[in-house]
């Protein structure tokens, strides 16, 4: 199995890239993976920014309908959308000046991975930060 993000990149994004995480696909639906992961990120001191067409307030944070609408810089864009849509989210993250991009477990777009890294942006794909962050110790 191909790994899209070595341990050093995972560690750097989780500990050194910054604490503002836009979570694309995050809504008030507590049964969705994005909600649980956002809660874990908050527990580890990250500020989460919900990005969803409904622009709902989630876990106490105001939401935005798109990455372009966020009026401040985000450090990491964490993508929970279908792989077919994820590449566009990576491109928007690069355009918005994000410092890193993270595609969740099961979200894979190799062309987007290559484009993002070619733009000089670290990226992890097909991994979950809520699984990885407790392993850092």
Brief synopsis:
The protein has five helices and five strands.
Keywords:
137 residues; alpha/beta; five-stranded parallel sheet; 5 strands
Protein described:
- A five-stranded parallel β-sheet has the order 2-1-3-4-5, with helices on both faces.
- It is an alpha/beta fold and 137 residues long.
- The two termini are 25 Å apart.
- The longest helix has 13 residues, at 83-95.
- It is globular.
- β3 (76-79), α3 and β4 form a beta-alpha-beta unit.
- The protein has helices at 7-15, 33-43, 83-95, 110-118, 129-132, and strands at residues 20-24, 47-51, 76-79, 100-103, 123-124.
- It is built from five helices and five strands; from the N terminus they run αβαββαβαβα.
Output the radius of gyration.
13 Å
Secondary-structure element series: HEHEEHEHEH
What's the shape? globular
In round numbers, the mean pLDDT is 94
Beta content: 5-15%
Secondary structure: helix percent: 25-40%
State the major sheet.
Answer: 5 strands, parallel
Number of strands: 5
Structural class: alpha/beta
Number of helices: 5
Q: Biggest sheet: strands side by side, in what order?
A: 2-1-3-4-5
Distance, first to last CA: 25 Å
Weakly predicted, low-confidence segments: none
